[in-house]
Amino acid sequence: MDLEFGRGLRPPKRDSWKTTLLLAYQSLGVVYGDLSISPLYVYKSTFAEDIQHSETNEEIFGVLSFVFWTLTLIPLIKYVSIVLRADDNGEGGTFALYSLICRHANVSLLPNRQIADEELSTYKLERPPDTTDKSRIKKWLEKHRKLRVALLIMVMIGTCMVIGDGVLTPAISVFSAVSGLEFSLSKDHREYAVIPITCVILAFLFALQHYGTHRVGFLFAPIVLAWLFCMSAVGLYNIIHWNPQIYQALNPSYMFKFLKKTRKYGWMSLGGILLCMTGSEAMFADLGHFSYSAIQLAFTCLVYPALILAYMGQAAYLSKHHDFYSSSQVGFYIAVPGLAVITVMLVTTFLTSLVIVLCWHRPPILALAFLLFFGSIEALYFSASLIKFLEGAWLPILLALILMAVMFIWHYTTIKKYEFDLHNKVTLEWLLALGDKLGMVRVPGIGLVYTDLTSGVPANFSRFVTNLPAFHRVLVFVCVKSVPVPHVLPAERYLVGRVGPPGHRSYRCIVRYGYRDVHQDVDSFEAELLESLATFVKLDASFRCSAASNELQEAEADAERERPLTVVAASNPLRGRASYDGQDSVRHHSAASTVEMEASSGTAAKQVRFFIDSEVSSPEEAAESKLVAEELEALAAAREAGTAFILGHSHVQCKPGSSVLKRLAVDVGYNFLRRNCRGPDVALRVPPASLLEVGMVYVL
User: Fold this and answer.
1) In whole angstroms, what is the distance from residue 253 CA to residue 255 CA?
2) CA 386 to CA 363: how far, in whole Å?
3) pLDDT classification of 547: cutoffs 50, 70, 90
4) More confident residue, 22 or 56
5) 519 CB neighbour count, 10 Å cutoff
6) With pLDDT > 90 as the criterion, what percentage of the chain qualifies?
7) Does the predicted TM-score (pTM) go above 0.70?
8) DSSP string for residues in 535-570
9) Which helix H or strand E contains 673, and what residues bound it?
10) Are 261 and 68 within 8 A, CB to CB?
11) Are 484 and 102 contacting, i.e. CB atoms less than 8 angstroms apart?
């Protein structure tokens, strides 16, 4: 079981009860830390406003009623019962919802979408799409580009708000927990103890992150579990000892009495009540590390009852002790999660309502009811949080806006670069005619030309051969693309096809990754690519042999142009197999002969073996088998000669007459990011000795 990469890599089967219990136990230390310590500061933050407390305790009962129904409606009903079901192959979070929507409706702004992507096993739909009965919402989104851009911006806002809040939440949570030492320390020692201890704990927490989620979960789960049990026991004691009638506050009428009596200050205090559900989004965001049943079990059976008992116990104690204290940190507690947390919740509510219609195919009225019910509750808290914007909430908002600007500038310029490449790509006939030109040389080796295009010959290759009239005997146009799924199975990662006739030795390989996949290192990628090409050669040969005699000329004519791509696994069981190991030798097995080639280089050599089926039933198949052997021999010889990685080194500038905003975004913003971010050669881990960079100027 791989807890670090989530359920996307695991087969879609139901977990056993032992596995569910184990995952539920681990989730305590990862998911529920922030939610579990919220009782430390909710009441303190709520009563920081100028609220007069009466002997009837209507203010305390009203706040407890708000806390109870907020925890019940948002974390329990919205997230645990509804939102967690909107997972993307076991993954959760804002991107998972957006990915799910993009698969069920054509709302993605990525330009290199292919029909073949829909055949991925993780590209599952809730039910087959009905082309004759599209919902109006789906047609509306697909028709208007501005709506698709607005949807992407909303997703970016939600994602950046999570990051902005995540920068500050650990510090606030740990500081709140350590602040309890103030009661046992003198005033002179508080400032020298609380902050240093907080810093040490934070450093310890971040030092443990690289050990993985499951190890962190096992380490902190007993701490959170002990905290929840102690909090429940103390709460139960306070209820019995101080005010057994506190359960009456669960009546929702106390919420209206509280707002009616406190008016403006009661509405402002909702920013403190909001803190009781901070961390709820983590249940959905961390879904990929655990499972739906594990998170549901942990929250409903342990975390939720413990929180309710803790809040009821505090309210019972406070109903007999009105001497509340305030702190200079209270306003900060209200303000910081204030806009960040509730904005993420609003984005999740909106996206989930789209999932209900587009993915679950429920009536639009049901999605509207979900949006209005939960959206109105969250909008109420959102409005209360706006008041504290200047007291600290501006900081996570500013961080989120900076991150969103970076994302949007990078996305916008990348799309424009793709459109430039698409407009300036050269034809296949131009590539095929290169071999007839005087002075054009095919040099030994494999040339991997990286491009974002999924068809055609990229402009960077035409620029390369124009300045250097030579290219490799085996040419592979490689496109590394992302698809709207969390994971792509290794057997489905490669789409391989020919570019031109078999004798030209030119291929196209599209390498597909999900948004949760880790890209391969260059050695394993090169090995798998070679195996995939070899497997494709045999599959392509079987395709040509199976063509009927009256269709043979048409198939040969098709070979002159680029045919559809084929999903190829490195060890495809269909029609032959290809294997790769570590010494420099090539063997071909067929019905007629066995050919073995040894490399002249001695040390650190590699060996490549290709096996071809020995079953030959006709002269045509014998001739085809011979051609396959020759092509595989050419692949192996090219591999022995070495592999060159041809990448574009781009510079982007705006067209004359572009707006000032576009110039700032592209000329300044994008080029600054490009110069200070990892280049494609570093991201792909290309050896410097094998790298060829082609300069390209993009005028957008």
Assistant:
1) 5
2) 34
3) low
4) 22
5) 12
6) 35
7) yes
8) HHHHHHHHHHHHS-GGGHHHHHHHTTSPPPPEEE-T
9) helix 671-676
10) no
11) yes
Site of tokens 């209820």: 239
Reply yes or no on whether the pLDDT at 372 is more than 60: yes
Residue 129, pLDDT score: 53
- Enter the DSSP assignment of 80: I
Domains of the chain, by residue range, sit at 26-50+57-109+154-167+212-391, 412-546+617-699
Residue 595 in this model has a pLDDT that exceeds 60: no
pLDDT mean across residues, the chain = 81
> Mind spelling out the 3-state secondary structure of 589-622?
ECCCCEEEEECCCCCCCCEEEEECCCCCCCHHHH
Q: Over the stretch 284-330, which tens digit does the pLDDT of each residue have?
A: 999 988 999 999 999 999 999 999 999 999 999 988 887 654 444 43
Asked whether the beta carbons of 336 and 45 are under 8 A apart, the reply is no
Number of other CB atoms surrounding residue 683 within 10 Å: 11
Smallest Cα–Cα separation from 272: which of 60, 43, 71?
Answer: 43
Q: No. of H helices and E strands in the chain?
A: 26, 11
Tokens of 86: 């909107």
CA distances from 234 to 47, 133, 176, 237, 313 (A): 21, 57, 19, 5, 7
For residue range 629-648, what is the model confidence (pLDDT) as tens digits?
A: 888 888 889 988 988 998 88
Give buried/exposed letters for 535-551 (b at 16+ CB in 10 A, else e): bbbbbbbbebbeeeeee
Sign of CA dihedral 329, 269, 301, 94: negative
Structure tokens at 106: 């054509």
Gyration radius from the chain CA atoms: 31
Residues shown for the chain: 700
- Name the one residue in this structure whose structure tokens are 């939610």: 35
On whether the CB atoms of residues 292 and 84 are closer than 8 A, the answer is yes
Nearest to 696 by CA among 652, 665, 656, 645: 652
593 touches 628 (CB < 8 A): no
Residue 600 pLDDT exceeds 50 = no
Q: 3-state DSSP helix/strand/coil percent for the chain, to nearest 5?
A: 60, 10, 25
Closest CA to 536 of 575, 568, 505: 568
* Alpha-carbon distances, residue 698 vs 457, 649, 661 (angstroms): 17, 10, 18
